[in-house]
Amino acid sequence: MARNTMETSSPLYAVIDLGSNSFHMLITRQLADSVQVVDRIKRKVRLAAGLSADHILSEQAMAKGLECLSFFAERLQDIPKENIRIVATATLRLAKNRADFISKAEQLLAHKVNLLSGIAEAKYIYLGVAHTNCSLDKRLVLDIGGASTEVIVGHDFTVKKAHSLNMGCVTFMQQHFRDGELNADNFSAAIKAAEQAISVIKEDFSAIGWHCVLGGSGTMQAIAEVLNHQKKPPIICLALLYQLQAQILTFSHVDSINIPGLASERSPVIASGLAILIALFQQFGIEKLSLSSGALREGLLYEMLPNSRKVNIRQRTIRAIAERFHVDQSHADSIKQQVLLIFNQLQAHWQLPNDNTLAILLASCDLHEIGLLLEYKYHQQHSAYILGHADLPGFNLSDRQLLIAFVSHYKGDLKPTSLTKQSAVAADLALKFLIIMRLAVILCRRRKDDKLPRYQLVAKGDTLQLSLSALWLKQHALIHDELKQEHRHIARLGFALNITCEQ
């Protein structure tokens, strides 16, 4: 009997990152053009904490790191050697006795460990962002590690400028928050030290400029988790950082930090990481930062995969999910066609931007029926759940929120709560885009392209005038009735849909 398994058709890939704070192992396989995460393993080794003032790595720190790698070694046995990348970063760059550790690590892992320079690490971090974020805008990318902070400006897959600063959340914790003590003086000293380090590169980076700021380090992820616990959008601004600083200073020691949503393992280095992040915001005049879904490990991984730069990351994700959940792609394409027709008719009247919001709406058309694979009755909730928990490279957290809002309400009762909670676009604009999708879905109800009508749609303020053939409406009584129901649905939110018959 022939075997047709993912394992025989798709080999595994592994990336190991020997970071200054944590050791990470990422194991994936490539399915069609998409990447499926098979396993993630993370251990808080805090290698940088074992680095002395004269840059000698302690025996205890090395033993803890090697113990972790012995666990990783077991998992590497079934992965082709050409599909493995193992890298070491800032702490081992600084350690004078790194050769001893790296030699023992290579024996354990039966694979070469590549010591990345600061610039190489920065470039891979940027590529991880480029491979997992859809925006083509010029980006400023920030990454705060345990012993280094990387700053990169780039566009698409091209790095314009990269720099690695010798400061990180673990080393700053040792230097400025000795014995874990928290007070306003040591916090201010940490921010000032970080600003002095950043000031050397500030002018060169500012001269290039950027359109958006992305970050994916543990500090930024921890802050995003606090925001998520508060039911707030995952957008980081300087005012929020000041609030967190004030909140942290209510505690006298890092061990006593207790902020809802903050993981306990993050508490020992949140103050030092936050000090560095505040300095970055202040020095570069950053207004807001969005969380990236990729960084160093993703950069190493995607650069291993064939043709990874040739396939649009968002389309790769959509296609993979659509195939996995057996989406009726012909029907999805019909809805997208109607969405674009309606958008073109309403764009000027409603001042609709042709930007990422439209792209998210079209992605929603592709994915709104993925929940049908489970059952029909609650398929919208199932679709929302799947999209809320799936890996979605190419969609940041704000994109995901808007995608879920559209999918959750593409038909039936309209509840504005999810539209107000998402942070990708203003709620009133999101509602207008959602109305476009809902009308397109109703008009495509028969799921047959040759039965779609010709129509004219005009907006006068918040009132829509839809003109349809009287004969077509007579032949499609169910759709006509659903359009009438849609008038009642959107009327609750201040909109109106009037239907006129053309002879």
Automatic annotation (TrEMBL):
Name of the protein in question: Exopolyphosphatase / guanosine-5'-triphosphate,3'-diphosphate pyrophosphatase
Q: Which GO terms describe its biological process?
A: nucleobase-containing small molecule interconversion
SUPFAM superfamilies named among the record's database cross-references: Actin-like ATPase domain, HD-domain/PDEase-like
- Organism, by scientific name, is Colwellia chukchiensis
Task: Please list the residue ranges annotated as the Ppx/GppA phosphatase C-terminal domain.
Answer: 313-486
Q: Where is the Ppx/GppA phosphatase N-terminal domain?
A: 27-307
Q: Does the keyword Hydrolase apply?
A: yes
Alphabetically ordered keywords of this record: Hydrolase
Any one GO molecular-function label of the UniProt entry? guanosine-5'-triphosphate,3'-diphosphate diphosphatase activity
